[in-house]
Amino acid sequence: MEYSRFTIFVIFANIIFLGDSSNLLHKNFLECLTDQFRRSNSTTDLIYTPQNPKYTSLLRSANLRTLSASREKPNLILTPYHESEIVAAVYCSKELGIQIRVRSGGHDYEGLSYASETPFVVGDLRNISSISIDSDKKTAWVQSGAILGELYYALGKKNKTLAFPAGVCSTIGVGGHLSGGGWGMISRKHALASDHIIDAKLINAEGKILDRRSMGEDLFWAIRGGGGTSFGIVVAFKVSLVTVPETVTVFSVNRAAEAAKQLVNRWQHIADKLDDNLVIRLFLNPAQSGNRTVVVSFTGLYLGSVHDLLLLIKKPFPELGLVKQDCTETRWVESALFFAGIQNKSLDALLNRTPMAAIYFKGKSDYVSSPIPLNGLNEIWRLISEENFKLQFSPYGGVLNTISDSETPFPHRKGNIFSIHYAFTWSNPNETQKNLETIRRAYSSMAPYVAKSPRAAYLNYRDLDIGRNNIRGNTSYAEASVWGHKYFKNNFKRLVQIKTKVDPSNFFRNEQSIPPLSSK
User: Fold this and answer.
1) DSSP letter string, 324-386
2) 82: which residues sit within 8 A by CB, 6+ positions away?
3) Pairing verdict, β 294-302 and 360-368
4) Burial of 64 by CB count in 10 Å (0-12 exposed, 13-18 middle, 19+ buried)?
């Protein structure tokens, strides 16, 4: 019987835990979870301890830095198939006072969904990943464990003109991406992913499953850009879909050296003012030739034909020199392959959950509200050519300018020309500390050229350098404001008030979760 195999597994795991008295709490958690599963007739093998051969593969991350030896790894990984199994984990976590972290795709830049500085367990939602699309109503229910690629694939198979405005990395989990904002290549036309959430299912600290009506508008507001893990476990989002033309156009052209710098300078004066149907995103990388120069990729998506794109871009940005041969007409779903860097593969590639090769990585973010002057661009060129940084410039404007900063917790709307994403990668773990110091110096050197008061940051590019909660004891509002205002600006106060109302004991917490006001 399947249940007997599960029972044997639990007995074996208990024997292992009994061998180490320091793991008594986790032994008790395992026993509690087993009991709860029996009560709800959950008979599938869902629990993985470090002794299980599958544990390591479940914990795999694309960012090796976040799984360094200095941080705790989960004492147990749960891979539920049903909401009742998550409710059971919440119950046991609360009863025994052990933290629970939730992982949908595992792309948190600081690994907060699968690594910690205190003992914890992980609920991995990879099996809670169903997608249900209603083409007539242009809506979809998407469970949090689905990845963006699965959503794009489902839309492409269902309808030629239905789309969803979200990110370009196909292996990102829906749960984390949508709850943090979700910028994508059609966001200037159709806003952020979080702006399209119209309902949700959330498990709160009491183990109750709530929808929009039962959770109330305050909590519903908070999980649309405020980071869902501070308030509960979001198991599904209902989203509104958008209509795009049957034919869209993609392109990516490279420019180098001083000419590229002049093009970047021109781009930042027009990027947020272009037609809403057009996005031109920049990737600034060191040249592979080793001659200390910079290569800039001007990567774009136009919701329409090549012919219309070339007519449209001729007036505001003739300097780019875009021609028909640079462009490809395709379907929107196939553009997802293009921007994910897998354009030579079939649509089935969007279903692959495995991230690219694991590396050591650190990322940071900024927002730019005034064009960066020439001396600032010179500093960027230095960072790339001498320090080996990689930068992305993502344009804002368009419909994003029409949405109030307080409509959702995501406040980076009107007045932002573009965001900056800083990336630094390495392969030798012994170089970690040196490289972290390098990226922090570089980030400091950019301060004169980016948004101030506060120096803003994007939650989905999480960065513990800008502040973190106390490992032991409570974190005050003033302490959390150091990082909270960077992510959420004036919306941070409302987020704290909602946290205080729905989770006053701070059950759902991590190194950068919203604290309740009761924390002194």
Assistant:
1) GGGEEEE-HHHHHHHHTT-TTS-GGGGG----SS-BEEEEEEEEESSPPPHHHHHHHHHHHHH
2) 42, 128
3) unpaired
4) middle
User: What residue type is assigned to position 379 of the chain?
Assistant: E
Nearest to 265 by CA among 380, 387, 383: 380
What span, in angstroms and rounded, lies between the C-alpha atoms of 331 and 238? 24
What's this model's pTM, rounded to 2 decimal places? 0.93
Nearest-5° Cα angle at 102, 127 to 124? 30
Q: List pLDDT tens digits, range 457-509.
A: 999 999 999 999 998 889 999 999 999 999 999 999 999 999 999 999 999 99
In single-letter form, the type of residue at position 474 comes to: N
Cα 56–chain centre separation? 22
Distance (Å) of CA 440 to CA 115, 429, 452:
22, 18, 17
**Predicted confidence (pLDDT) per residue in 135-153, tens digit:** 999 999 999 999 999 999 9
Residue 461 known to be catalytic: yes
Residue 464 has phi, psi (to 5 degrees) of -75, -10
- Among 48, 114, 461, 487, which one carries the catalytic annotation? 461
